[in-house]
Amino acid sequence: MLEIIDLTFYYGNIKALDRVTFKIKDGSFVLIVGANASGKTTLLKILCGLLPIQKGKIMFDKKELSQNDLRYLCGYVFHNPLNQIVGTTVEEDIAFGLENIGMERNRMIKEVEKTLKSFGLYELKEKDPATLSAGQLQKLATASVTVLKPKYLFLDEPTSMLDEQDSKQIKQCLKDLNDSGITILVSTHDLEQFLDTSNWIIHLNNGKIDFEGEIKEFLEKDFPDVERPGCFN
Ligand SMILES: Nc1ncnc2c1ncn2[C@@H]1O[C@H](COP(=O)(O)OP(=O)(O)OP(=O)(O)O)[C@@H](O)[C@H]1O
Ligand SMILES: [Mg+2]
């Protein structure tokens, strides 16, 4: 379990997170929602070690984690996946992280092949990522993070740039990863997309959590910044 305790974060004078406290249970699929500028991206970036822990603590199995510990434990997929593509081919992009940790070559080839297949990217392995569709890019960015086997996977609005078909595929990918034991946290503006994949939701309001609980219970309340899925109107 990841325990987030009293996390407060400032960009200069701007308070982006205000004493955020919650727990991420292993195996769960959690949604983070909230208006623009409510702190979703900031929270995810701290949790994966991209931004420092200024105030507060993050604990894993009762041990306090450093920013560096988080980098190993957690993977992060950016809002715009192009921000994290580094390879000149799909295959190279997936291999990059494994090369970085010094994985032995034969093992690396096997891991890359397994990941290419499980994300449906095998046929595209020699393609230049710049030529991929938005959906394929999102899958590649997720694959390149997942190949490193993070215990926790955080994705910032993974479906916001995708059409319906690509969104469906990414959601299925995430569902399969979650079923395989990876704990997932997704920030989204589109609650309806994830109604059938997730059960637990956190609502951020101006850097503070003002709701945490089951989606069903969340939908019974009226948060002005949240578009209620059609089936609940
Ligand atoms: N690099 C930055 N420098 C200064 N202020 C920032 C920076 N990034 C975010 N902020 C501010 O921090 C607050 C939280 O922003 P954040 O991006 O975390 O919100 P968000 O919920 O992800 O918003 P969105 O839904 O638009 O993606 C906002 O007031 C934002 O303007
Ligand atoms: Mg954001």
Written account of the structure:
With 233 residues, the protein is an alpha/beta fold. The chain contains seven helices and ten strands. It has one domain (2-227): P-loop containing nucleotide triphosphate hydrolases (Rossmann fold, 3-Layer(aba) Sandwich), CATH 3.40.50. The chain has helices at 40-47, 67-73, 90-100, 105-118, 134-146, 164-179, 215-220, and strands at 2-11, 14-24, 29-34, 55-60, 63-64, 74-77, 152-156, 183-187, 200-205, 208-214. The strands form two sheets. The protein has a six-stranded mixed β-sheet with strand order 6-7-8-3-9-10, with helices on both faces. Residues 11, 14, 16, 34, 36-42 line the site of adenosine-5'-triphosphate (ATP).
Helicity level = 25-40%
CATH class membership: Alpha Beta
Global geometry? globular
Mean pLDDT: 93
Number of domains: 1
Count all strands and give the number. 10
Bound ions, cofactors and other small molecules, one mention each: adenosine-5'-triphosphate, magnesium ion
Radius of gyration: 18 Å
Major sheet description: 6 strands, mixed
The ordered string of helix (H) and strand (E) elements is EEEHEEHEHHHEHEEEH
Low-confidence stretches: none
Structural class: alpha/beta
Q: Strand fraction band?
A: 25-35%
Per CATH, what is the topology?
A: Rossmann fold
Q: How many distinct helices? A: 7
**How widely separated are the two ends?**
35 Å
Fourth CATH level, the homologous superfamily: P-loop containing nucleotide triphosphate hydrolases
Strand order of the largest sheet: 6-7-8-3-9-10
Gross CATH architecture: 3-Layer(aba) Sandwich
Pfam family, one: ABC_tran
Family: Belongs to the ABC transporter superfamily.
InterPro entries: AAA+_ATPase, ABC_transporter-like_ATP-bd, ABC_transpr_CbiO/EcfA_su, ECF_ABC_transporter_ATP-bd, P-loop_NTPase
GO molecular function, one term: ATP hydrolysis activity
